[in-house]
Amino acid sequence: MRRLLREPLGLFGLSLVLLVILGAVFADLLTQWDPTRINPRDRFLGPSAAHLLGTDQLGRDLFSRVLHGGRIALYVALVSTAISLAIGIVLGLIAGYGPRWLDNLMILLFDAMKSFPTVMLALALVTITGPSLTSVILVVILVNVPGYARIVRTQTIAIKSSEFVTAAQSMGASTARILRVHIMPNVIGPLVILASMDIPVVIAIEAGMSFLGLGVRPPTPSWGSILNDGFGQIRETPWIAIAGGLPIIIITLGFTFLGETLRDVFDPRLKGRG
Amino acid sequence: MSTLSISGLNVHFSTEAGSLHALKDVTFDVPERRIVGIVGESGCGKSTLINAILGLLADNGEVRSGQILFEGDEDLARLSRRQMQDLRGPRIATVFQDPMGALNPVLSVGRQMINIQYRSPQSRAAKAARAVEMLKLVRIPDAESALGRYPHQFSGGMKQRIAIAMALMMEPALLIADEPTTALDATLEVTTIELLKDLQATIGCSVMFISHHLGVIAELCDDVVVMYAGEVVERGTVRDVFRAPAYPYTRRLLECDPARQSRRTRVLPTIPGEIPDLRQRPRGCVFAPRCLERHAGCDTPQVEHALAGDHRARCNLAPARSPAAVPP
Amino acid sequence: MTAAPILSVEDVRVAFPVGGLLARDAILGVAGVSFEVRPGETFALVGESGSGKTTLARAINGLQDISQGSITFEGVRIDGLGRARMKPLRRRMSMMFQDPVGSLSPRMTVGDLVTEPFRIHGHGGRNLRDEAVRLLNLVGLPADFAGRYPHQLSGGQARRVGVARAIALDPALIIADEPTAGLDVSVQGEVLNLLNELRERLGLAMVIITHNLHVVHHVADRMAVMYLGRFVEVGETGTVFAAPRHPYTAALLSANPEPDPDRARDRITLPAEVPSLMSRPSGCEFHTRCPWAQAKCAAMPPPAGDVACHFPLSPGARPPPREDRP
């Protein structure tokens, strides 16, 4: 942890991420405006002391919408990443450690899932379930699981012929024990770092879907829907689009820097010689 | 003139927990046309020594003092990266424990051996012929067709011989061999050693042979340097050092070598303890905490004493024991 | 009165299919091996790479299926036994692996590592922390090592942890794969002394796999030399060392130079390469490298017995001069 704090880029990334998280968590304290409150007289106001980012086409305070939109983004990010990791780890362990035919079958499955373009997947799913937060989460899971499972599978295959696994087998350990105690702790490391670098992607998926109207329904604020509004109203004011786009940029930079620094800290070999 | 003359070499590494004094006052020579063995166990500094000579120390390592004189005029410790690069290969070649460190798995052997000769202005055909000549010298069967094969098609022992052929192809002045036979089976090890001996005689280079296998050193090398915890504790001809070891660590090491134990015994000798923390070197003798002959004089810095001929030992007790000692 | 053997291996063969899904060909990693180990005895399997010794060791421990033959441990036939039925037997037979640090799970503490056998087989109410301390003491490590991780251990210390783990459940037989591999010469003695001491104290039988003949000399009662998956010589260690009867044994013994520069170099040199298992030589499989080979050796396999050779060596035999060799 200390080494992380010493890297300037990591520190920067961490602060950006914390900024967004704190903003989302303490949204109600930081602004007095209700994000869904319509106020037609104050439409298209530029940034001011009262409205830090101005107002949108319905007079809603943009700063408040951004902060609350952060909650959606983070909720989606956390829940879907957690579930994707859980499923991905289990499937990857099974594929890596189990019999060859099972592995081949699962690879086929993963590749099939990965070959779907995200947007098409989203459209298809939403047609069935209707637009909602749940459908966003589902899309994210379907998109992420194959990647995580693949990584866990590769690591599992690499480790399963290690001497310490053979030693466990020779002691009579059950398959479940070997997977749980000997293999899993040694494969999840790189995965955690990867997952943190995927979070911007997850948020982008959510934003994208909301932008297309496939995600959260109005009036719930989501960065994507704010961005959508912003594009529609670009002739009136640029601030709505900025309000929608800025947090996405901030969180993407934040998690990317954080993730890369975490990776460098945990495995300096990847950084280059030395 | 010595091919390599190291004097007073001190290498430090800066770590989070302080400065690590990895090599201390290392001094020895590799004379022309001689094979010098470097003996030591884990932590003795062999790898650091090789890296320092080749200019490949990690970013946090530095040569604080001393010189590494190559062929009498170039101080390797003072050369730039580019200059070292020019030396490595044609003048100073290396062979490592794992031949795959030198062999590219996706290129054929012939291609690699021709590529190494990139500095030479000769034609491709001439370079290929030279490669075949070298492969024959290291006794690879069917050398012409070997050029077209890939490293994985050769056994471990053959790969190592190819690596040796590649190293010696440019006829370097110095060959550094870092545990080249450690990973090979015993019968293969001895044939490789005999091969190295023949090659050295033919090509006339100097060889620095690093190993922890005492028997191999005794057989192959002319001189030997014993290292412990980053210091040269004893050096001399193989005969002097192995027949009349003056430094207690050398003596214990020879006693522990199972090959020495001609009589079957149930309790083998060992050297209990560990090497000291190199961030805080003891003021006196570095081996004292584990030495069975320890006495009061061991707490003062030890000086390298000259014994018979070129035999030197860094132990203040040595001259008293050795009849042919030369007073300092 | 000799007790019944604790381990009995009879004509074991291990074949590995080659050539993809519909493999027709197979290579024999172990080509017919038989031997017995008596309680409290140390038996050494000696050979170089490709000799099949590790495959054989794994087969004995149930980690590798055999294609033919039988393995009997404490009166129970263990080859082909399913995992469930093999499990209780694993309390009685434990194995130590070649890589001292690599055979220890990197994210487990030493304390957890040495008590893992209890976790797998049930600890019957014992306090695991006490057991860890007891085991560490038995192998000469201080109790505070229990909190360390494998990467914080030296080779010798990691090796001791492996020994502690192997004796945790008080087994009757330990299989040790290259117990001195990766260790400096000055600490090799530590491990061997420890094994000897524990053997005497706990009455263990041991099967040691190694290519290091000097280790064998000090630790094993009986030994077998393996070449291409077969035994070429079996006998009491002292006898074999004093007067090797198979040419390969003689060559192995001469291949370990003593650190004595003046010693006469009467080495028996073998032509470099071990034949591939895919194309085994005819007759006596060693004839392609044997300095004493004659016409009969290429034609007929050697007779069964302790020495697999048509012309066993007499004590002190030297290879014929090169010109005389066929």
Mind explaining what this structure looks like?
The complex is a heterotrimer of chains A (274), B (328) and C (326). Helix content of chain A is 74%, strand content 0%. Chain A is built from eleven helices and no strands. Chain A has helices at 2-6, 8-25, 27-30, 62-97, 100-114, 118-129, 133-160, 163-171, 175-211, 223-232, 239-266. Chain B has helices at 46-54, 81-87, 109-116, 124-137, 143-146, 156-168, 186-203, 214-220, 238-243, 248-256, 318-321; strands spanning 2-15, 18-31, 35-39, 61-70, 74-75, 92-95, 174-178, 206-211, 223-228, 231-237, 305-306, 312-313. The model of chain B has no long low-confidence stretch (mean pLDDT 86). The radius of gyration of chain B is 21 Å and the shape is globular. Chain C has a six-stranded mixed sheet with strand order 6-7-8-3-9-10, sandwiched between helices. In chain C, a hairpin with a 2-residue loop joins strand 9 (222-227) and strand 10 (230-236). Chain C is globular, with a radius of gyration of 21 Å. Chain C starts with 6 loop residues before the first strand and ends in a 27-residue tail after the last helix. Classes of the chains: A mainly alpha (274), B alpha/beta (328), C alpha/beta (326). The B-C interface holds B 41-42, 139, 155-158, 185-191, 194, 212, 214-219, 238-239, 242-243, 252-254, 256-261, 264-272, 274 and C 48-49, 154-155, 184-190, 192-193, 196, 211-215, 217-218, 237-238, 251-252, 255-263, 265, 267, 269-270, 272-274.
